[in-house]
């Protein structure tokens, strides 16, 4: 019998149960979620998409990700930082993305804040990875409550507060915890999931920016 939160697939591999919730999830679970990321553009994209997810299911965002990338020019934050009112109106007419004005405006605002941060510190990745929690801040085994509530952590609250102080928006502590999971800053594949040790190995090999 599978443990709570884990499911055995047709090949006998044990995975986090949420992997089976949609056809798009197996690849995302196996190949992306938790893999450490150090590229500034990819990190800006992840921040934006996690912000768009606020109040929505992640699968909705994942299914629209390619349309988001097309609409926001590959999430090149230097380009997005130049967007004005005409771009906001263009994006509000784009059926391929989530047409929420506040979130679109936030994406443009955060592009400008990203440019400022890179100008000041040299790297969005280096700045973000400085918030990686210490080992004693992370649970050894992820609590199943993380999948039934709105997870945060002390580290995600610190990151959220620091970004808000710099003028970023849609970067609450729950959204930032989701970012930490997605970018590999924490490994929240459940104990027993075949991907958990793989992600741990990648995290050990990963050179922090």
UniProtKB/TrEMBL annotation:
GO terms for molecular function: DNA-3-methyladenine glycosylase activity; metal ion binding. InterPro entries: Adenine_glyco, DNA-3mA_glycosylase, DNA_glycosylase. Gene3D superfamilies: Hypothetical protein, domain 2. One of its GO terms (biological process) is base-excision repair. Signal peptide: none annotated. The keyword Metal-binding applies. Zn(2+) binds at residues 16, 29, 189, 193. Keywords: Metal-binding, Zinc. It comes from the Bacteria. The keyword Metal-binding applies. Pfam families: Adenine_glyco. PANTHER family: DNA-3-METHYLADENINE GLYCOSYLASE 1, DNA-3-METHYLADENINE GLYCOSYLASE I. This is 3-methyladenine DNA glycosylase. It comes from Pseudomonas trivialis. The lineage of its organism: Bacteria, Pseudomonadati, Pseudomonadota, Gammaproteobacteria, Pseudomonadales.
């Amino acid at each position: 019998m599978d443990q709570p939160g884990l499911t055995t697939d047709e090949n006998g591999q044990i995975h986090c149960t949420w992997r089976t919730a949609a056809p798009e999830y197996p690849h995302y679970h196996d190949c992306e979620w938790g893999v450490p990321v150090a590229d500034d553009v990819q990190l800006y994209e992840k921040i934006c998409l996690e912000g768009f997810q606020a109040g929505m299911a992640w699968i909705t965002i994942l299914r629209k990700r390619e349309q988001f990338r097309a609409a926001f020019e590959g999430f090149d934050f230097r380009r997005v930082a130049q967007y004005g009112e005409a771009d906001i109106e263009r994006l509000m007419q784009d059926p391929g993305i989530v047409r929420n004005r506040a979130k679109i405006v936030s994406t443009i605002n955060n592009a400008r804040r990203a440019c400022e941060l890179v100008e000041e510190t040299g790297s969005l990745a280096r700045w973000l990875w400085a918030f990686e929690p210490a080992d004693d801040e992370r649970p050894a085994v992820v609590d199943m409550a993380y999948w039934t509530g709105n997870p945060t952590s002390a580290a995600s609250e610190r990151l959220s507060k620091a970004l808000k102080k710099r003028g970023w928006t849609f970067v609450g502590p729950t959204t930032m915890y989701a970012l930490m999971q997605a970018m590999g800053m924490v490994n929240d594949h459940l104990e027993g999931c075949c991907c958990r040790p793989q992600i741990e190995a990648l995290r050990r090999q990963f050179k922090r920016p």
